[in-house]
Design brief:
Length: 140
């Protein structure tokens, strides 16, 4: 179950909830994602679950960055102009403010990460264009 290359829905975290369909942000995702807030709102933490092939649009966290803690499955993180980075459980990604990026599942794998918003005055997210199929299909 914890084999990080096996990423059926069965292999999702037993520790953190999958949550509900992420309807509020669906417009900024390709594919189905789920969102489970962790703790209360002061923590700014959620467990995000991506079905295979699901990824968010390119986006920027302004003022405050974001930290991703990978929990289950296999996914991808990419910064604009850089090579994509394959993600496995236990990987931690520190995203600096103002860096354009996306994150999501591998094409053949469910994926879960905890997303932590780094607190900052006036922090916001700017959602940009989708990660198109041509870019996504080039991932190893
Ligand atoms: Mn992000």
């Amino acid at each position: 179950m914890t084999n990080d290359t096996v990423a059926t829905e069965e292999g999702l975290s037993k520790l953190f909830p999958k949550g509900d369909p992420n309807d509020a942000y669906a417009q900024f995702f390709i594919g189905q994602s789920y969102l489970a807030p962790l703790g209360d709102s002061q923590l700014g933490a959620s467990n995000v679950t991506f079905e295979p092939g699901c990824r968010n649009n390119w986006h920027i966290h302004h003022k405050g960055g974001q930290v991703l803690i990978c929990v289950a499955g296999r996914g991808w993180y990419q910064e604009w102009g850089k090579d994509p980075q394959e993600l496995h459980p236990g990987d931690v990604v520190s995203i600096q403010p103002e860096v354009k990026h996306w994150h999501g599942a591998a094409a053949d794998s469910w994926f879960q990460h905890i997303a932590l918003a780094v607190p900052a005055e006036g922090a916001s997210a700017e959602w940009l264009e989708p990660v198109d199929d041509e870019t996504y299909s080039k991932l190893a």
